[in-house]
């Protein structure tokens, strides 16, 4: 029981833990939680320049704990937690470049957190952020349901860490729910992964703020979510082909047409698709407010007239620079048969 500063009444507040609060979705979760009056918010994050810049200004509104989730000792102060929104993870491309690190943080880190909660917060409700990548390549069969086989694409270390973490959670003594996130678009950085995704990929997005709303609203829906897995996506209004998504994005940034040589983009071995059963989560937690058009509008608002004009002037060298990041194109040009078999049909 804690005392409300504004009254003489004693009120019961739930202790909510967020891991990875400095990430794109995590920071949205944090902002939404801090708007609620009935939660004590605890944040566990790795201390970096970015996390300090984002979290320190809000430190007076929460309990901020820095540490490494892969080190069990760093978690020992986490006690009496009522619910956890676990978002901390090493994501691609870093996860694919350093699979051992991804395993250490994503799988072993999750296991460490589970064990700490089992000991000191056995009644905690564990909300886990998984990924659409666990379903693997769905070019041929783009409509995805929770019960589908988990067959990660070849070389997808990130997906494997998520599958193992899911298994650990399901085998734990805690109450839990798992949200398998679709393509979360917002503050998205262009990287070499852009070319790993086939242009004919069926793409369903969700915005970070909608995704965060699903987790935050889910805290009060434990009974309906308990011991269940859900696909989290924006729904029909957030669906597009990857090619059209890139075309619209390039237009917004002033980069003109999507003019890359043949074999710049892979044909296979990625992930994404449309969530055929995604409405199940929406019916419980009512998180969807943004459409694909809202996303593009938000992105357009971030691009100043000056930046767009500059990108338009320098679009040829910019696209040349981007093409240099394309691993499929490089292996094709080098006629590397083994690598080509990974990217191309």
Describe the secondary structure blueprint for this structure.
Elements: E1 2-3, E2 10-11, E3 14-19, H1 24-34, E4 39-45, H2 49-55, E5 63-66, E6 83-86, H3 94-97, H4 99-120, E7 125-131, E8 143-144, H5 157-170, E9 175-181, E10 183-184, E11 202-206, H6 208-218, H7 222-225, E12 228-232, E13 239-241, H8 242-253, E14 274-275, H9 279-285, H10 292-302, H11 305-313, H12 315-324, H13 327-333, H14 337-343
Parallel strand pairs: 3-4, 3-6, 4-5, 6-7, 7-9, 8-14, 9-12, 10-11
Antiparallel strand pairs: 1-2, 11-13
Helix pairs in contact: 1-6, 4-5, 6-9
Low-confidence blocks of residues: 1-9
Principal-axis shape equals globular
Distance between the termini: 61 Å
Domain module tally: 1
For the biggest β-sheet, the strand order reads 5-4-3-6-7-9-12
Main sheet makeup:
7 strands, parallel
- Quote the average pLDDT: 94
The name of the CATH superfamily reads: NAD(P)-binding Rossmann-like Domain
How would you explain this protein's 3D organization?
With 345 residues, this protein is α/β, with parallel strands linked by helices. Helices cover 39% and strands 17% of the residues. The strands form four sheets. Strands 5-4-3-6-7-9-12 form a seven-stranded parallel sheet, sandwiched between helices. A three-stranded mixed sheet has the order 10-11-13. Helix 1 (24-34) links the parallel strand 3 and strand 4. Helix 4 (99-120) runs parallel beside helix 5 (157-170) and helix 6 packs across helix 9 (279-285). The longest helix has 22 residues, at 99-120. Mean pLDDT is 94; it is low at 1-9.
